[in-house]
Design a protein that fits this description.
The structure is a homodimer. Chain A is of the alpha/beta class. The first copy, chain A, is built from 15 helices and twelve strands. Chain A has helices at about 25-35, 50-55, 90-100, 120, 130-140, 160-170, 190-210, 225-235, 245-250, 250-260, 275-280, 285-295, 315-325, 350-355, 375-385, and strands at about 15-20, 60-70, 75-85, 110-115, 145-150, 175-180, 215, 240-245, 265-270, 300-305, 335-340, 360. Chain A has a four-stranded antiparallel beta sheet. In chain A, strand 2 and strand 3 (about 75-85) form a beta hairpin. The longest helix of chain A has 19 residues, at about 190-210. The first copy, chain A, is elongated, with a radius of gyration of 23 Å. Chains A and B meet through helix 2, helix 3, helix 9, helix 10 and helix 11 of A and helix 2, helix 4, helix 10, helix 11 and helix 12 of B.
Chain lengths: ~375, ~375
């Protein structure tokens, strides 16, 4: 072996933290396998090069038993494994691969969080706006209170009809009006026409109110149209983007967040991501998925199903998302949690209490529930959010 | 409401089939919710337009109790729901959204398969080669037997060292030599140098053998580099692509499959996808995920963890993948299942018996196990595959 093939990595590492069922001894052995699985994926005893053992393969740094037990009843340990920053390269796709690629196929291993040194986190711009940037962008009316959001729907209505809703939502005090994530570029609700109509409607309302409500069209799209749609939307007057990274891939959203011609706030939608957290003992924690990974991938707001809605998250899981949105991640900005999924106006004071003012409250269909005066319904929503 | 806003959809529908725990009556009620959730996502009673009820909202077409019970012990029903083809639009991202977007967030609902009318399936080119096309592409030596595949690893070796492995694999009779999915574009194993070195090594071996072994570099990459890397790889002499759609997004792979300047066979890697099938009672079935969705997204070969390897799939789950690879899907070609994940040469006759000759057998690290003569080890693999 000539010297030229010797590795000379920095020695800097990032840490992935997993929960694994089993005793400390069992989990130590499994964790050792993960160190190999996520890097060389090769029988360790067949690797003769010392530098590969020392510089490439992951390293178990701690195994601690957790109090309580897993949903399946076994005891559970928290394991921290450190991987060389160079193995993750400079790419979000490969970083996610090291954190959770092949181990996703193991039934009983949950990625609960990760920590990166500045040499790795600085490779990611993360959220362009973040909490503070988005508040500044919205202006002085959007301080010391949760931001208010709603969705443009139902599918089947024409862009013109939907734009009447958008106009009223903006008049009524909504900050962020997002497309329903089911509005793509269907024959009956084309993206171009929709973005133009709704951007215009919200602009008119803003002129009347003097406020700055944003319209965020859904630019979730095929890989070869994603950037194009987002750039078009900005030119057409949209105020931000709704993107479902479960459909575009995480890096699709990152691409929009980083692109200078896009440059608008991003709300991330959880469509297609649910299985990552419903996996028993496995998958990815709510905080790592909806919080940390969304931040890495450039979301400014992360939408998720609130506890007690028509989905299934618990209060602890929702708190974990808030933690993922706000825990230190190098220079990456903190982002807004946006609890949603069948929320109702009467629950707003409770949500405000639970999430505090650093949140986006998202009410969809229920804004249509209390009579046909949408402007007034939005005002009731705004009023409830200030209690 | 003026006439111009009336919908005029074709009435053609595609069917999503789910498994849901509960009695027939319970599941019927839940299924009705799914019809709304995946389309209008809006309180049904607040939609006054008859055309939206009739033409947009999904429709429950059957609810049948299944024999046996779910892993959690409840009775389970199979539910077929039909959605209008226009709701899925012409985009893989939106089709996946309708099949499994928001319902992914429900804990107890599993997408088990889907069926599309020709008007929808014909929007997707699917696999460029498929089983027959890939065999034709490989030439007359690749008939009536499983194709043989291995992986280039371990990470940490230089492109030059790895190319010596590739040369020997090709001499020894491997058909498809793929990069390990952990090789991205790291500082110590740059993509360009690797693709050039390994493509050249495999070309030299092919000149000696007269056979046509393909080298498939991993082109999994950030969204803005994916197409570029795949096109570069072809120009540099690569024979195909390894892509992990769990990292790029499904449509990233579809983009490569459809691109005329790429135009090479694709092996799909399961990294990051595992949670979809480990979800208890939820997620997506092995057949729909590794089979059907891979086909829609243009994979020619789908890699998955074989039963009895270092992961956790059962024999039934592996059979379900074969079903997803081969069941009728309009004009979409059938694709190869590629059982992998800690496979050993001594298990090859058993694998051949289980999967038949219409498969790709993938052995990674174990090819290095029986002494350092890699050419001879590959010949043993080939010999075992013909038994």
């Amino acid at each position: 072996m000539d010297d030229s093939s010797q590795l000379n990595l920095s020695g800097e590492r990032f840490a992935a933290v997993y929960h694994m069922p089993g005793s400390v001894a069992q989990v130590e052995a499994l964790a050792r396998d993960i160190c190999v699985e996520q890097t060389v994926e090769f029988p360790e005893d067949l690797i003769s090069r010392k530098d590969i053992h020392e510089q490439i393969i992951g390293r178990v740094v701690s195994v601690e038993p957790l109090e309580g037990s897993s949903p399946s009843g076994a005891s559970v340990c928290e394991v921290a494994i450190e991987f060389p920053v160079e193995v993750a390269g400079c790419e979000l796709t490969q970083l996610l691969n090291v954190l959770y690629g092949n181990v996703s196929l193991k039934p009983s291993l949950r990625l609960v969080r990760f920590d990166m040194p500045a040499s790795l986190s600085s490779l990611y711009k993360g959220p362009r706006f973040g909490c503070r940037g988005l508040r500044d962008h919205l202006g002085t009316g959007a301080r010391d209170r949760p931001l208010l959001s709603t969705a443009i729907k139902p599918m089947g209505m024409s862009p013109k009809e939907l734009s009447e809703y958008a106009y009223k939502f903006a008049l009524g005090g909504i900050d962020l009006i997002k497309d329903d994530h089911g509005l793509a570029d269907q024959s009956f609700v084309r993206l171009e026409e929709r973005v133009k109509c709704l951007s215009d409607a919200v602009r008119r309302a803003n002129e009347e109110t003097g406020r700055k409500c944003l319209y965020l069209p859904n630019v979730t799209a095929p890989a070869d149209q994603l950037l194009e749609r987002a750039r078009f939307a900005r030119r057409a007057g949209a105020g931000g983007y709704l993107i479902a990274p479960g459909l575009t891939g995480w890096d699709g959203m990152r691409q929009i967040a980083d692109d200078e011609q896009c440059g608008l706030p991003i709300m991330s939608h959880p469509a297609f991501l649910g299985a990552f957290t419903t996996s028993q003992d496995g998958g990815i924690s709510h905080g790592a998925l909806y919080g940390q990974i969304n931040r890495l991938a450039g979301a400014d707001v992360t939408i998720f199903p609130n506890y007690g809605g028509r989905f299934s998250f618990s209060q602890d899981e929702c708190r974990d998302i808030v933690d993922g949105c706000t825990r230190p991640m190098g220079a990456l900005k903190t982002i807004f949690p946006a609890p949603a999924g069948g929320m109702k106006v009467e629950r707003v004071p409770e949500l405000r209490k639970f999430y505090g003012s650093e949140s986006v409250l998202l009410i969809g269909g229920d804004l249509h529930r209390n009579g046909s005066d949408l402007v007034e319904n939005c005002r009731q929503f705004a009023k409830a959010s200030r209690r």
